[in-house]
Fold:
Amino acid sequence: MRYSNSFIHTLFEVPKEAETPSHILLLRGCYIYPTAAGVYSLLPLGHRVAEKIKTILREEMNGIGGIELTMPVLNPAELWKATRRYYDIGSELFRIKDRKDREFVLAMTHEEVITDIARQFLRSYRDLPIMLYQIATKIRDEARPRAGLLRVREFFMKDGYSFHPDFADLDAYYPKIFNAYLRIFTRCGLKVYPIEADSGIMGGTGSHEFMLESTNGEDRFVVCPNCGYQANTEKAVGLKPVPPVDPEPAPPMTKVATPEIKTIAQLMTFFGVAEHRLLKTVAYQADGELVLAVVRGDFNVSATKLTNHLKVVHLDLAAEALLAEKGLYGGFLSPVNLHGVRLVLDTSVDSRNRYIAGANQPDQHYVDVVYGRDFTASEVVDIAEVRAGDTCAACAAGPLEIRRGIELGHTFKLGTKYTAPESMNVTYLDRGGEQRRLIMGCYGIGVERLLAAAVEYSHDDAGIRWPISIAPFQVIISALGQNPEVVATAERIHVALARDYEVLLDDRADSPGVKLKDADLLGIPIRVVVSQRGLKSGRLEVKVRATGLVHQCPEAELPELLAGIVRDLQPSLAGLPYLPETTPPAR
Structure:
């Protein structure tokens, strides 16, 4: 393809609205165009990259028995009402009505539609197991679209759904999808961390996120360098350090005036104590119920862990008006003398130590509070967010590290969340003619997010460095100057290489500086420079974008040199942390 007719219009200036490297470089390189906040057009270069990613997705999904289909973005609301997600999901779900006043939603995911399809066609054990997938548009009314393609309102997603006769069959299939995901991201030139994750609104019995480490990521995950334990901070568990036990028996609890002293930092200064001597009490509204969560002062409450324990859909910080109804006061909340309010206590609170806690009265705190003597709790669970440096619970040795990352994919063991009687009630006939509940799995990857993540992962000050597997072109030929011999040589090389590679010929009449800078910005893996000076010495210049390595070679040796470079640039699938695959149990 010729640059002059390829619809590439690079930008020199950094767009004002762009902050992350992928957003900046994809805009400057003419890969994307912002149509609205969180809504982007994929321009020809971006479209080519996205199609390469889709090809890899299809190859890997087909390789584990997946069958592709297409489901509509416009979904009848009654399907989403059957699973209650119509009510449970907040404003990020688009809800609309047609001209006949019928309710619809714009699908942000397709569990309801695929389950309805399964209900119609998967009626016998002979139909199972099966995995259906699509690569289709999703719509999400994202409250804070940002970072270009990393957080958007409309996007392509590969979502797959597997159906099984029982949990054992799902467990046997799950490693296949897990390992296929590892291959997908590796083939796209990315190193990911498969981490234990929370299932969130998807529900189910277990899930993994595939996380790319990035300083611009919005997710946080923990890693144990000792044993390799990895988990999202929302789910991660660490061993909580136990402070020295007070040697003397605790004196009776007493009340102390603390005018306008509300925060942990203020209390530490006022009483001259460390964080772990305080009780941190946070009030939440959980599906309308007031709940107080209590952790030791050196921890924070994990809203996800608390939500999962309470088994609620909506968890929000309690409003002052709700606290006032119960005679409580923000900043002075306490588990002491608490009546008529649900209390959840974290396992970090130890009955052998004395604490300072609020007094549920304005400007008052209790000192020498002892759990078990001055207050009790029937719900004592892990609701604390893990911290950097906490000891790994898996090996009881390594200090946990917290890293930032971009979630690229998510796999779920949904179980019967969508097939249960209280949801969409999907059954099949087993070999004995008995009705059995269908078991489901769900597996998603965002296409544009993966595209942007590849740029976040591999770029420099000059531009993008695409992995060769998803680059819009494999080779760019930069013809420097309009000398007839330079032009003729570039044309000849273009024709020859196009038989084996995707080649972009920069045939513009621009200066050599502009052409070379644009080649670096676009990030095409291999650049072949044809110049008058090089031709005089009988040499072409070949630069590998990823490494910066420059080769000089005669034209006749170019095909062999390129073959070796391309071979070296191919990602290796060896050594990935595959899950062992097993044979499904006989049924």
Q: What stands out?
A: The chain has 14 helices and 33 strands. The domain at 254-381 is CATH 3.90.960.10 (YbaK protein). The first helix runs from residue 21 to 28. The mean pLDDT is 94.
